[in-house]
Structures are given as structure tokens and as C-alpha cells.
Amino acid sequence: MAKTMYNLGDVAVKSCVSKSTASRILNNKLGNGFTVKKEVRKRVLEVAARLNYRPNLIAQSLTNHSIQMIHVLGGHHALSDLGNIYQTVVNNITSVVDSAGKDFDVTVDMSIPKPNSSELPAWKIDGVIVLAWCTDNTVKDMEGRGIPYVVVNGPSGPGGSSVTLDDIGGTKLAIRKFVELGHRNIAYAGPRKDHLSGHSSLTERHETYLEEMARYGLTPVVGHCDEFNSAEAFLESTVIKSGATAILAYGHMEGLNLMQAAHKLEIAVPGRLSLICFCDEYANSVMSPGMAFVDLRSRDMGHTAAQLLLKQLGLSSAFKPEHIKLEEKLIVRESIVPPCMTDEWIKK
């Protein structure tokens, strides 16, 4: 049997007061010339408790201009992997918004959008933060309606702001570190099939790997342009057959899969094989031994995006779109050492 959902009007009727009076009492907005008797206030609160009344925040946002609604699109990305960077991004977006000292409500869309649809919700929203990407119709809708928005780790339309990463610089840091340690056979493990299609990181990391290998006079190791399906097969091809001593992995899940497969194949990490992956400090904390990584600065991305949007909401039409690119950092941990070319290593 369906449970009855009571609204503000039901509370007002059963309390024998007007709807506006019930609203003021329940939202604790008395004063400014408006007063009620103690017994009236008590009666309204008791009725609301008895009916298990909960305010409709979406309805409030349509009528109460003091509450600003911020909507996060692309929340399904945060569920794609253990320790996905977008989980940290969303956490820091809400943290910044909550500490802003104003009335903001944040909603996160976890659904997978249809290709030709607008992803904007039916209720009133004041600003949007997009995780990685949204549909073209969503961009047109936001810009057509003049809704301020910021894209995290992806491009915006002409009227939007963005916070992105320097993947080219991050890849250069990783290859340079391997070369400084003495590695010459450096492999690249690309993303799995289910990764974000068309994202700039797919081409920027791979193409920079090829450019840096050429710059150092090194030959790319077989498998650098292949789809990453099996960590064991990749290691057998690159390490056991081709003699790679180091691997730069596209992401933390590829890195984790490689580390697990190396253990199964009795390939020592570090020692026989050094590993660096792209991820952030939170995802990296679950790995053992600690993997060296190019820090994608998810915390800073979320923090910066939220600040940009709040700034835009405060300045209204006077705001001009901003595009911020964060430098990536190489965090050195236990998974990288100089190559160890022993006779036992070669025979194995």
C-alpha cells in the first residue's frame, strides 16, 4: 500500500493556519513584523511531525530566489571505477559550495544521457558544473538560457568556463623520469575499451609518448597503440618478449591491473619492471607497492571549478568565461627504480 505524501497545504489545513504562515513557521522565518502565538507555532510543528512532512526543495527553488540551485552533470563518470577522479572532484565541489556562506543546493545527475537530448533538469537551476562532457544540445540549452556553467576536465562552449589538465606536460614528466633512471625500453599501456570516447587525454598522452620517445632517440615498444584488454597479455608482449623495463599506464585501473598481473607472472615491481600511471593521490592510496603517478589533481579541479561558478553567479552578466589549465605533477613512489638487467632477468 502506497504511503501518503503530505504537502505544505495539508499541514496548513490541519493546523488551521494559512499556507504562508505554515511556511514561515516551518522555515523559522519569523520576525520583520510577522509574529505568531506560541501555541500556534507549537500546533504547526506538531502537525508537521505527525504527518512526517518534508519540504519540497525543488518547489522551493522555483519560488524562493534566496536559494540557488547548482546542478552537476556527468555524475555517472564517478561510478565507472574504484577511486575514479570524479568522485574527488564532486566531493570538493560540494565542500566549496557548502562553505560559501549562502543558500545553495547541489544536485548531481547520475544518469547516462541520450545522445541528442538536453541533460538539464525540469526544475530551475542557477548554475551547472559538467564533469568531462555533456551533449551538444545541453551546451546549446545552457548558453541559450544564459545559465552559467563550468566544464571540469573537458572543453566548454563559447560562453562557458573550463578547468582542464596539462596531459602533455604530465606525460613529458613521466618519460623524462624513466630516462633519468636509465630506462630505454619504455612501453605505454593505453586505456581500456570502456573509457571516455573522444576525450583529449586519449590522444595527448599517447602522441606525447611517441614524441618524447623520438626526442630521446628511443624506439616505442610494441603495444603502445593497442586497446588495453588483458594486463597479462600486455606484459607478456612488452616485458617478457620485447624486454621493456618500464611502463607508463594511461590510468590507475590499468596500472593496478598491470601490477596484479606482474605479481601473477612473477615480474618484480619494482626491480624487473617500473610503473607510472595517471591518477590522483586518493586512487593511488589503494595500491601496494605505492605506485608512482602523474597527479591529475582532482581535488584542485573540483575546488577551482566550484570557485569559478560561484564567482560567475556573483557577477552575473559582467563575468567573462575563464579557461584554467592545471599543471600535472609527478609523484615518485616505490614502483620506479633504475633498470636491473641481470642474466637471470634476461633468461626469464
Helix and strand pattern: HHHHEHEEHEEHEHHEHEHEHEEH
Overall tally of domains: 3
- Alpha-carbon distance between the two ends: 67 Å
> Got a strand count?
11
How helical, in percent, are the residues? 40-55%
How would a textbook summarize the main sheet?
6 strands, parallel
CATH class of the largest domain: Alpha Beta
Structural category is alpha/beta
**Name of the CATH homologous superfamily of the largest domain:** Response regulator
Strand line-up across the major sheet: 2-1-3-4-5-10
Strand content bin: 5-15%
CATH architecture of the largest domain: 3-Layer(aba) Sandwich
Give me the Rg, rounded: 27 Å
**Which ranges are low-confidence, i.e. pLDDT below 50, for 5 or more consecutive residues?**
342-348
Helical region count?
A: 13
